[in-house]
Amino acid sequence: MISIVLVEPEIPQNTGNIARTCACTGACLHLVEPMGFRLTSKQLSRAGCDYWDHVEIVRWPSLEAFLEAHGNDELHLFTGKASQLVTEASYGADAFLMFGRESSGLPEAVLDAYPENTVRIPMRPDERSLNLSNAVAIGIYEALRQHGFPQLV
């Protein structure tokens, strides 16, 4: 199962939209704390609608705890600083697609530790970033496309 990893997400509506995408694609959602909201937040449930019961959610107390458990697994770190495009990477069936906080992205130390695992979504040079939920959707659908959209209709 492909997993989406949100490292210290800040905006509940983005996380709710991403949970909905995970429910629709069968991806597992990993939430790395600290988060900028509580999971019981009204905006979070509104954005995720009635999809929360259809998503496997794993919470991590810190990025260090997540990396201790999965640092040797197949990680794909999404960042505007990568040279490899999202479409050039090869995604295994159990890949982890990692996304950083909305305001600052993934920590430099993590990007430096996994330089060959970084990917970027192409966009105009003067723009800083896509919305997090849009970036996740692009990443998960590219990974699933490479596998023929298993179990999706």
Provide structural commentary.
This protein has 153 residues and is an alpha/beta fold. The chain has a single domain (3-146), classed as SPOUT methyltransferase, trefoil knot domain (Alpha/beta knot). It has five helices and six strands, in the order βαβαβαββαβα. The protein has helices at residues 12-25, 42-48, 63-70, 108-113, 132-146; strands spanning 3-7, 28-32, 57-60, 75-78, 96-99, 118-119. The protein has a six-stranded parallel beta sheet with strand order 3-2-1-5-4-6. Helix 2 (42-48) links the parallel strand 2 and strand 3. The longest helix is centred in the last third of the chain and has 15 residues, at 132-146. It starts with a strand and ends in a 7-residue tail after the last helix. The model has no long low-confidence stretch (mean pLDDT 92).
Question: How would you sum up this structure in a few lines?
Answer:
With 153 residues, the chain is α/β, with parallel strands linked by helices. It has helices at 12-25, 42-48, 63-70, 108-113, 132-146; strands at 3-7, 28-32, 57-60, 75-78, 96-99, 118-119.
What CATH architecture label applies? Answer: 3-Layer(aba) Sandwich
Overall spatial form: globular
Number of domains: 1
- The tally of helices reads 5
| CATH class term | Alpha Beta
Order of helices and strands: EHEHEHEEHEH
Query: Major sheet, described briefly?
Result: 6 strands, parallel
**Count of beta strands:** 6
The strand line-up of the biggest sheet is: 3-2-1-5-4-6
Mean pLDDT: 92
Our measurement of the CA-to-CA distance between the termini, rounded to an integer number of angstroms, reads 17 Å
The amount of beta strand, in percent, is 15-25%
Oligomer: single chain
- The name of the CATH topology is Alpha/beta knot
- Uncertain parts: none
Quickly give the structural class.
Answer: alpha/beta
